[in-house]
């Protein structure tokens, strides 16, 4: 058992969005560590079967202030992952605002009222927009370019404001393109890795919007979960924001070829029209702050992570999942 896991035994913990990809993996780790975990999820994108045995599941939304207050009152620590994703947020900005900002405010108000030990807010590297320099530091200029990025930054700012104004212990982690086992390709909102796996395994061309040289920093889910757990227990994390990535830049073309190697199949790249949603050209984050203050370092390389993900993908029977449009994330 790793050091962060030893800190959660017997604690009552609320995980919002715990039926989702990262939330489900976080919940599993917490349960394995001996925590008493309650999951709140509206199953908009999550699936109940993602929640491990041993966790209590409440189907509901963070937009329900009364329910949120009841659940927060029964727990001493909150991991807040519930959110609409980039595609749903772009389709319905009003719902995005209600969930990603309004829901976050509900969680923070309840946490303040009930004096929880800490709230860990999971943000997104999308808040940087098109960066002025690479790699991106936490204090670099923020230019969110989508409704999703705007709302995730808004939730993050609320978390920091509650720390500064009310003394509520909070910590924020900005995820950079998390992937790995558990990211189901039958979910229409899944990431590019899962979609590429489906098409590559089926022998279909991998459709890439634009020239494929747009780049991202791909983070294996176990590494993201470990950083999130450390943000809940490290004393120096209070009131801080941390990039969670690898510091390594990978083009979408490079990712597609790496997935072919992971499956041991040839891949054909098909470049199609660029979309407005794919408006960020380069993104790779600086993780030195997390190394220093969380004492966290990512352990899984892209090649290893893709190999593990491909093995899970085939073993879980997702090889015939319907393909969906791809995006860099």
Helix content: 25-40%
In quaternary terms, these chains amount to single chain
Question: Which range does the strand content fall in?
Answer: 15-25%
CATH architecture title of the largest domain: 3-Layer(aba) Sandwich
* Main sheet attributes: strand count, strand direction, barrel closure: 7 strands, parallel
Number of alpha- plus pi-helical segments: 11
CATH class of the largest domain: Alpha Beta
Number of domain units:
2
Radius of gyration: 19 Å
Side-by-side strand order of the widest sheet: 3-2-1-4-5-6-11
CATH topology of the largest domain: Rossmann fold
CATH homologous superfamily caption of the largest domain: NAD(P)-binding Rossmann-like Domain
């Amino acid at each position: 058992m790793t050091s962060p896991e030893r800190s959660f035994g017997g604690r009552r913990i609320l995980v919002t969005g715990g039926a989702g990809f990262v939330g489900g993996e976080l919940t599993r780790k917490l349960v394995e560590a001996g925590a008493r975990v309650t999951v709140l999820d509206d199953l908009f994108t999550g699936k109940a079967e993602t929640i491990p045995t041993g966790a209590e599941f409440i189907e509901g939304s963070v937009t329900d202030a009364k329910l949120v207050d009841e659940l927060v009152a029964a727990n001493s620590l909150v991991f807040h992952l519930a959110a609409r994703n980039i595609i749903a947020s772009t389709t319905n900005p009003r719902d995005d605002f209600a969930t990603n900002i309004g829901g976050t405010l509900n969680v923070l108000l309840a946490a303040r009222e009930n004096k929880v030990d800490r709230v860990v807010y999971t943000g997104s590297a999308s808040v940087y927009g098109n960066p002025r320099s690479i790699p991106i530091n936490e204090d670099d200029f923020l230019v969110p370019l989508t409704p999703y990025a705007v709302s995730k930054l808004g939730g993050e700012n609320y978390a920091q404001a509650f720390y500064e104004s009310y003394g509520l212990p909070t910590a924020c982690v900005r995820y950079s393109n998390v992937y790995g086992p558990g990211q189901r390709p039958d979910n229409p909102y899944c990431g590019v890795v899962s979609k590429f796996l489906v098409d590559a395994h089926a022998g279909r061309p991998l459709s890439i919007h634009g020239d494929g040289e747009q780049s991202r920093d791909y983070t294996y889910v176990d590494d993201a979960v470990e950083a999130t757990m450390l943000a809940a227990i490290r004393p120096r994390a209070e009131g801080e924001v941390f990039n969670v990535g690898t510091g390594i830049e990978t083009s979408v073309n490079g990712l597609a070829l790496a997935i072919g190697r992971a499956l041991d199949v040839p891949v054909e790249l098909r470049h199609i029209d660029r979309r407005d949603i794919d408006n960020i050209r380069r993104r790779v984050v600086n993780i030195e702050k997390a190394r220093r203050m969380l004492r966290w370092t990512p352990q899984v390389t892209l090649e290893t992570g893709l190999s593990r993900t491909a093995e899970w993908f085939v073993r879980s029977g997702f090889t015939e999942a319907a393909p969906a449009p791809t995006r860099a994330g």
